[in-house]
Each structure stands twice: as structure tokens, then as C-alpha cells.
Specification:
By secondary structure, the chain is an alpha+beta fold. It has one domain: HIT-like (HIT family, subunit A, 2-Layer Sandwich). It is built from 5 helices and 5 strands; from the N terminus they run ααβββααββα. The chain has a 5-stranded antiparallel sheet with strand order 1-2-3-5-4, with helices on one face. A hairpin with a 3-residue loop joins strand 1 and strand 2. The longest helix has 12 residues. It starts with a helix and ends in a 5-residue tail after the last helix. The mean pLDDT is 96. The structure holds guanosine-5'-monophosphate and zinc ion (ZN). The site of zinc ion has 6 residues, from helix 2.
Amino acid sequence: MTQKEECIFCKILDGEIPSAKVYEDEEVYAFLDISQVTKGHTLIIPKHHTKDIYHTDAALAEKVFARVPKVANAIKATYSPVGLNVLNNNEEPAGQSVFHLHIHLLPRYGKHDGFNLKWEVQADDYTPEDLQQIASAISQNISN
Ligand code: 5GP
Ligand code: ZN
């Protein structure tokens, strides 16, 4: 079996597994995440199977990310959340559990609404020179 044949989201796209559709066009499908971390928690996926952000070319990324404002605004118009997080997990240690690229849209209803993002600021550990060195190191690996 190929990765695509084993993929839950490809099965959803094929209609083999039912889903609650929010939006669909030729390139992209958006549906409710079964976990509903917050009410209206939606996933946007490309119809073309790609494992994660590393395996996604610019043209496909454009298609997926271009639909984020459209779906975000629909969620906002429907449930008037106080905020919204856009999240993409890549590889297991970063929380990816389904290996078909997906963007989470998580409407927020307050501090204790089911979603929690722990964000520890480490700014004191880095001098401006450290930041320049890190930026330069990453920059050298940017490919066209
Ligand atoms: P990840 O953990 O990879 O960032 O997100 C995968 C998400 O897919 C999870 O939040 C999980 O709840 C959701 N999910 C897994 N299986 C299914 C399914 O069969 N149907 C739907 N609608 N969502 C699913
Ligand atoms: Zn897939």
C-alpha cells in the first residue's frame, strides 16, 4: 500500500470516510475536525496528497493558504469567536498525527476554551549577534 492509499484524509476526499464539509473547490477541501477542540474547528486540505509542509511545493501551498481567509471569515461570521488560531503541525514530535498536509482553523472563545498554546519567550538567551548568525545560517539554506 502506498502512503496515499492508507491516508485517512484521502479516504475522506474519496468519500470512503464521511465528513462534515465546510467548503470545497477543485483544489481544496475544508471540513470539521472530528476532535472539535473548539466549536467550528476546521481543517483545510489540498485534494492532492502531500505529506507535510516540507513536501509541498509553492503552487500547492498557494492554493491551500489562499483559502484560509475565506474559511476563517465564514467561521467568524457564524460563531463570532473572540479570536482564531491558524496552525499547521509537521512531523510527529510537532503534533502531526495525520500525514496529509492540513491547516487547522481554531476559533477562540476565551482562555479556557479547550485550546492552549504554550509559548515560552527565550529572548533573553539570544544577543542581536546570535540572531544575525541564526538568520544567516537559515538564509544559506533557502533554495529557489
Ligand atoms: P494533526 O494532529 O495531524 O495536526 O491533526 C489531525 C487532525 O485530524 C486531528 O485534530 C484529528 O482530530 C483529525 N482527524 C483524525 N481523523 C479524522 C477523521 O476521520 N475525520 C475528521 N473529520 N477528522 C479527523
Ligand atoms: Zn492523503
